[in-house]
Amino acid sequence: MRLILRNLGFYLVAFWASITLNFLLPRFMPGDPVSRMFAQSQGAMQPEQIAQMSKLFGLDDRPLWEQYVTYVKSVFTGDLGISISRFPTPVTEVIGAQIGWTLLLGTTALIIAALLGNLLGIVAASRRGGLLDSAFPPLLIFVGSFPYFWLAMGALYLFGVSLGWFPLRHAYDAGLTPGLNAEFLANAGTHLVLPALTIVAVTVGSWMLGMRNSMIATAAEDYITMAEAKGLSPSRIMFRYAARNALLPSVTNIGMGLGFVVGGALLTEVVFAYPGIGFQLLAAVQRLDYPLMQGIFLTITAAVLLANFLIDIVYVRLDPRVRVR
Amino acid sequence: MDPVLEVRNLRVEYRSDGRTVVGADRVSFAIGPGEIFGLAGESGCGKSTIANAVMRLLKPPAQITAGDIRFQGRDVLALAGGELRAFRWRQIAMVFQSAMNSLNPVLTIGEQIGDIFTTHEKLSRRAARDRAGELLELVGIDPERLKAYPHQLSGGMRQRVVIAMAVALHPRLLIMDEPTTALDVVVQQEIMAQIRDLQRELGFSILFITHDMSLMVELSQRIGVMYGGRIVELAAADDLFAKPLHPYSEALMNAFPPLTGPRRELTGLFDAPRTTDSCGFHIRCPPDRSDCSMNIPDLREVAPGRWVARSTEGDLR
Question: Which of A230, A250, A321 is the best mutation test for B, with the most CBs of B within 10 A?
Fold first, then answer.
């Protein structure tokens, strides 16, 4: 428990640092983002927009620390400013509208890939040199080394266009209103299949290899031989003794993956025209929408920190050795 | 009395591409009920290979290529699957070389002792936990420590836990593969005393493996000296210590140099491992073995119960 509290303190400090960086970066950028944006928009900006941006980027004439206090205050009250490219929608609203889909896609793909990959790794390691062990890793690495864009386009063409099994774009059919009814959920589900499966296809190989190697290293430990000598059943040895220990590095990876889910899967979102943070971030960069960029960065940082904190808690439960430190 | 364990002409090979290393060759010995049999020899001589062969724990590339192992008349090499699992630990239990590493770091002591009972005696978890507590008490550890993880115990305590686990099902034979190697001398003595007490109480036989001759003479009744995968001398402990007949036995005993007296060079296993066409001994053959450069000869009985691997009878000292 004390360990968790100490970790929490560490994460709060890290979060504070990321807020501060987020505040400082635009102010330290060479040139004046506002005038650059102004020039690019060729006079299409409203006066309120300019005023709003000037305030955001510290072009108001108050001293830096005062601006900083205002900024921190507004972050904690959930005010991340107003998006330029989607004026006058607040940044929080833009992010809020997208983040659900990003989380849905990212977590689904991550969970399937991690579960499947780890399971394959466990089985491959326990039947070392068998068919699964010799055929799957090269195959999955082969698939995984395709340029993702190409693979996704291929899948889209084959399953979407030629076979017509899955819809081509968007998170749900136009005309449906989002809600918790069977029709909508089924529709969103079929839209999810291709984007999620393509991500799984390219990532599952590394999960499998990681788990397989970890399992083989663990299987050489004396306590595995001891478990065997004790006459335990092979499945108990495999899961309770070997996999339980071999999973620890994987848990770390899941945590990191979970944090980066929020960043969105840019290419997936582009190919499948799937709404999401990644696509939004790209749009923000292209349109020099600094408030939105800042907001997305902050969200991603917060998510990575939160995911790591959660994994810390899980890790303490899984590995008693970290409790004593 | 019928022996508990009988090993006859056992040969274990480590086979890899292009090269075969003989881990053990024509090894024969028997252990009687309640007997403590020591297997001595330095690292790499095949002691642990024998132990793992008896438990059927050898994994590829190791392979038993000849001989047989009988436990109370049962053919151990013929056991498979569930039969083998039921045989392990109930009939023969083992204390491994490094007790430090033979406990799973992420499971509590209680869980690890308990799953012996849930597996072999089909006990409920609660009942298994109670039995585990009794076992800990047997080796002088507070049953409260069932909830502890291995890293929370000292090296000596961990070794006790492992010994408690080994006697959990009252096996007829206990294999101890260098049970005290990683421990300091004081703890080592405590553990040895513990083992002796348990043995007296429960009456199991012990196959005791070590390179530490002084420890061995304390505990064992009979001793086999192994060298290069073969037993080179097999004798009652007292006889062996009074007068080792094989030059290697003598060398091994001299490996613990006396505190006083002239300096002597230590002799041991030489760099070449034993392969199918080399005994590894010829590189530095002692003077009285000049007649055999490639093979360690078979054991011959030179006196009742006293076997030695020497090719000539002539120069027994």
Answer: A230
